[in-house]
Amino acid sequence: MKWLEEDRYFMREALKEAMGAGQIGEVPIGAVVVSENKIIARGHNLRERDQQSIAHAEMIAISGACNALESWRLENCTLYVTLEPCAMCAGAIVQSRLKRVVYGASDPKGGCCGTLMNLLDEPRFNHTVLTTSGILEEECSSLLTNFFKELRTKRKRKNDDS
Q: Where's the active site on this chain (predicted)?
C-alpha cells in the first residue's frame, strides 16, 4: 500500500513535467527519477525544440540522474514516466541499471515494457527491471489524447484557412 501512495505522488510529479512539455508544443510525456524517496532528476520531451530523436523524457531524466549521482549506475533508483517507454528508452533503462520503472499509460504503438514486448524483463540481458504499470493511467492517457486531438484540430483549421 505504501508503494502505491508513493507511486501516485511521484507520477503526479511526472505529470507536471508532461504538462510542461505540452505547453511548449512537445508531446506531453514527463519523467522523474527517484532515489531514497527524493526526486534527483526530471525530464520531459524536447524532440521538437532540440530536433533530436533521442530527446525523450526518460533519456533526459536518466542523464540528469547520472549527473546527480555522478554514476552511470542507477541501481537504487526508480523512474516514473507518464507513457510506457519505447525500445530506445527501455534499452537505456536496462543499461543504467535502474531498479524499477513505473509508468502510467501503455503505448500500443511503441511500448517495450510489456505491451509490444518487455525489454525490461528479458532474461538474456545482464539486468532486469521491476515494472509497475497503470499508475494514474487515466490522467496520463487523457493528457496525451487531448494533446493530439487539439493538434489535429489546429491542423484542420490551418488547412481550411489555406
A: 58
The answer to whether 56 is annotated as binding is yes
Half-sphere exposure (CA, 13 Å, Cβ side) for 106?
10
Tell me the residue type at 129: V
Whether the predicted pLDDT of 3 surpasses 80: no
Q: What Å distances lie between residue 75 and 23, 25, 59, 85, 112, CA to CA?
A: 32, 33, 16, 18, 20
Split at pLDDT 50, 70, 90, the class of 1 is low
- 27 neighbors 150 (Cβ within 8 angstroms): no
Active site residues: 58
* Alpha-carbon distances of 130 from 15, 67, 126, 136, rounded to whole Å: 21, 23, 14, 18
pLDDT of res. 122: 95
44 is in an annotated binding site: no
DSSP assignment of 83-152 = E---HHHHHHHHHTT-SEEEEEE--TTT-TBTTS-BGGG-TTSS---EEEE-TTHHHHHHHHHHHHHHHH
The answer to whether the annotation marks 77 as part of a ligand binding site is: no
As a residue count, the chain comes to: 162
